[in-house]
Amino acid sequence: MAPVLRIEDVEVYYGGVIHVLKGVSLAVPEKGIVALLGANGAGKSTTLKAVSNLLRAERGEVARGTIEFLGRSVLKLDPADIVRLGIVQVLEGRRLFEHLTVEENLRAGAYAQTWGETVKSDLERVYEYFPALAERRELKAGYLSGGEQQMAAIGRAMMGRPKLILLDEPSMGLAPLLVKEIFQIVHRLNRDEDVAILLAEQNALMALSIVQYAYVMEGGRVVSEGRADALARDDTVRRFYLGMADHEEHQSYRKILEEKRAAAGMRNLRKRQSAGGSDDS
Amino acid sequence: MNDLIYGIELTITGLLIGSMYSMVALGFVLIFKASSVFNFAQGAMTLFAALTLVGLIPMVGFWVALLLTVGVMGGVAVFAERAIFRPLVGAEPLVIFVATLGLAFILEGSAQIFWGTQPHGLKLGLPVEPLMIGGVFVSMPDFISALAAAFFVILLVLFFHKTRIGLGLRAIADDHVAAQSMGIQLRKVWTIVWVLAGIVALAAGMLWGARIGVHFAMSLIALKALPVLIIGGIESIPGAIVAGLIVGVAEALGEGFIGPLVGGGVQDIMAYLVALLFLMFRPYGLFGEEMIERV
Ligand SMILES: Nc1ncnc2c1ncn2[C@@H]1O[C@H](COP(=O)(O)OP(=O)(O)OP(=O)(O)O)[C@@H](O)[C@H]1O
Ligand SMILES: [Mg+2]
């Protein structure tokens, strides 16, 4: 299927000097759900912000590459135009309007929509997805629990009737059970609402359980990609992301790859040696 | 008993005048919520609006003058937003504050160039016979001004809470990046907010002008609003309203009861005395936005 989002060779600088993305390419198929995995500082959020063009608010800039949404370049568009085209980003850390009520937060999500009947029915739909929010609609959002805040942030994005949601680290700071619940809702959203999702996550195990395809980033580059089931089985990914090769000395993904290659080389060497008949072990 | 009636009269007068303080303070709250800046130029805008109005009235009559002044204030607002504040997006609040100082000087300067430095009277032709309510005298012009101010205050509150732009404004006040992420356009909202602040300035200029005449001291209205903002909390709409009324009443009672004992002049310091008390006991103001902290 034609991709709804296509990112090609994108390079991003902050403040004109800090080179953060060094050629990122990825695609999200129509109605697809894709994960962008990677450790702290890999460049996941920056990639999402390059698409929504919220980079500009942080003095970031796409210096090279193309970003196309439904075949159309969105590089030069204002964040508001991009929202109107159908891309809504859920920022890392949820970023609710704390002093506004839950319902006002949701209404703000519909800001770019024409202000009318659709807002009411969209509100009801969000409350169906997140019954906890319906009970707290008059509460100031700042008083919601972390999980409820994440739900409100996702619901707020839904109010913009997006074709693509850029979801940044929804698992942040949440208990595993809650993460699971939220990911299931995200999965259902994608399936039932015809909305494509690009999910940036550090929690690879959880993310891989709901996405079809995933990219792994490190140091501003995509270093690996593949179908979710394949990546989940992949040894290196498991080792690096699923806690099996934990944080000893800032092990980088590339280093693991190199180690793996070296190990494979050793094995080959040994094989050849044993084939040659000598055995010194 | 006489003291009681006198006290009631003073309180009512205070409330009436206080409603105007509320309105002026709301002009500040508006800009502060949109851009976290104390708009020092609000006083100059008030002066500029009042001078433009009294300058135009002899030429075209009151209603046309009023309409033209609304247009002029809209122009000033758009100019201020485009030329001064837009280039400063992301700058330190202090820098933007200084920019509002600059705007104040530009406005006062151009007001002098266009309309001269003479004080003007402003007659709105309001009835002057005092109102008698249950044995209590109420000044008619004060009463009408208060009605007008209350009308504006209600309009602003409705704007904040019932309109899309108002919602966008409050969203921006909370988190402007998140606001942008849902397609709220900072610049559009800012421009509208400045236009509204200009209209509030005009209303304030008109009501104050009718009371005390139109002259350059009017730009000091900013100093009048300061204690109101301290008491109410600069981000709070209900705070500005209640604090305006409190200051009005405190001034009237202070002047009426303490003034004669010390030879007058109490009025001007009352507001600051009350503000000082609030600074000591409630530094965020009456309804200052509580810092929401969850643990
Ligand atoms: N506004 C900024 N100015 C300068 N450098 C920045 C800015 N924002 C991010 N960076 C840098 O860009 C790199 C990538 O950051 P980014 O936030 O995209 O990473 P991330 O993958 O989302 O990480 P995390 O999982 O911690 O959210 C980091 O090294 C970070 O320090
Ligand atoms: Mg991030």
Can you walk me through this structure?
The complex is a heterodimer of chains A (about 280) and B (about 300). Chain A has one domain (about 5-250): P-loop containing nucleotide triphosphate hydrolases (Rossmann fold, 3-Layer(aba) Sandwich). Chain A contains eleven helices and ten strands. Chain A has helices at about 45-50, 80-85, 100-110, 115-130, 130-135, 145-160, 175-190, 205-210, 230-235, 235-240, 255-275, and strands at about 5-15, 20-30, 35, 60-70, 70-75, 85-90, 165-170, 195-200, 215-220, 220-225. In chain A, strand 9 (about 215-220) and strand 10 form a beta hairpin. Chain A is globular, with a radius of gyration of 21 Å. Mean pLDDT of chain A is about 85; it is low at about 245-250 and about 275-280. Chain B has about 300 residues and is mainly alpha-helical. Chain B has helices at about 1-35, 40-60, 60-85, 95-115, 140-160, 165-175, 175-180, 185-210, 220-230, 235-260, 265-280, and strands at about 130-135, 135-140. The relative contact order of chain B is 0.19. The model of chain B has no long low-confidence stretch (mean pLDDT about 85). Chains A and B meet through helix 2, strand 6 and helix 3 of A and helix 6 and helix 7 of B.
Brief summary:
By secondary structure, chain A is of the alpha/beta class. Chain A contains eleven helices and ten strands.
Shape of chain B: globular
Under CATH, the topology of chain B is which? Answer: ABC transporter involved in vitamin B12 uptake, BtuC
**Count of individual helical segments of chain A:** 11
| CATH level 3 topology of chain A | Rossmann fold
CATH superfamily membership of chain A, which one? P-loop containing nucleotide triphosphate hydrolases
Number of E-state strands of chain A = 10
CATH A-level architecture of chain A: 3-Layer(aba) Sandwich
| Major pleated sheet of chain B | 2 strands, antiparallel
Number of discrete domains of chain A: 1
**Could you report the average pLDDT of chain A, rounded to the nearest whole number?**
85
Number of strands of chain B: 2
* Structure class of chain A: alpha/beta
Q: Please write the string of helix (H) and strand (E) elements of chain A.
A: EEEHEEHEHHHHEHEHEEHHH
Strand arrangement across the biggest beta sheet of chain A: 6-7-8-3-9-10
Radius of gyration of chain B: 19 Å
Q: What's the number of helices of chain B?
A: 11
